Amino acid sequence: MLERESRHEPGSRAAGRPGTGTRGDGGDDTPGSDVARQKDALRARVLEARRALTPEQRATAAEELRGHVLELAQELREGPVCAYLPVGAEPGSLALLDGLRAAGRSVLLPVVPPRPGPLDWAVYTGPDSLGPGPLGLREPTTPRLGPAALRTAVLVLVPALAADRSGRRLGRGGGYYDRTLGALPPGVPVVALLHDGELIDEVPADPHDRPVTGVVLPTPGTVATGNNGRG
Ligand SMILES: Nc1ncnc2c1ncn2[C@@H]1O[C@H](COP(=O)(O)OP(=O)(O)OP(=O)(O)O)[C@@H](O)[C@H]1O
Ligand SMILES: [Mg+2]
Fold this sequence. Notes:
Elements: H1 34-51, H2 55-74, E1 81-82, H3 94-102, E2 107-111, E3 120-124, E4 130-132, E5 138-140, E6 155-159, E7 162-164, E8 169-170, H4 176-180, E9 190-193, E10 199-200, E11 214-217, E12 221-224
Parallel strand pairs: 1-2, 1-6, 6-9, 7-10, 9-11
Antiparallel strand pairs: 2-3, 4-5, 7-8, 11-12
Helix pairs in contact: 2-3
The protein binds adenosine-5'-triphosphate and magnesium ion.
Residues 13, 18, 29, 39, 170-179, 206, 208-209 line the site of adenosine-5'-triphosphate.
């Protein structure tokens, strides 16, 4: 139910680049545009709400998400799961990654490229396989597999600040996942992990935004999202 449909939009990478003005249904990612302002306002709101979560609330949410994702992963054919290392109050946990490994999955983690481009990937082989990365973040110390490793995944777990039922997703503003997910073969689920309350009525979106096929929240669990016609 969370399958990613084939809906690549030829030229979406080139069309509507910053500075091309307004668009009918798409928004405008020019810095200072309405959509950019709306995204920034929503990011600030969500990040503030996340900061207000107590350590107990974060731990409970992480445990619930772990259970839902492991259940979801049971339905999938054999193959690696692309996941991420949560930072701060971001939904997810190392326990989730370890749970996927214990269930027999290979887990790939993103490595941020030195210049804007698609994410690189490396295998997570346990907490000892993590070392210091840029911006004070941890990242895998295992060999880099290259961006094409994404294409081997049977599930991609993505970080998000919010999503809506059409599958529009708001990230932290780097555009990394938007530059990455277009290479994923159709039919592979792309699932955002959220805190309760972060599945909202409408996420402001630009044409470059890559949709998710589902979200997982601590309380309701897995929710399939529709197709907003992009991606
Ligand atoms: N496919 C792309 N090609 C070139 N630039 C892109 C592409 N996708 C996004 N960008 C750039 O990245 C910037 C940030 O995009 P956006 O605000 O959608 O980030 P995000 O979705 O929150 O981040 P992320 O994908 O890292 O979670 C955009 O202003 C845009 O210029
Ligand atoms: Mg985006």
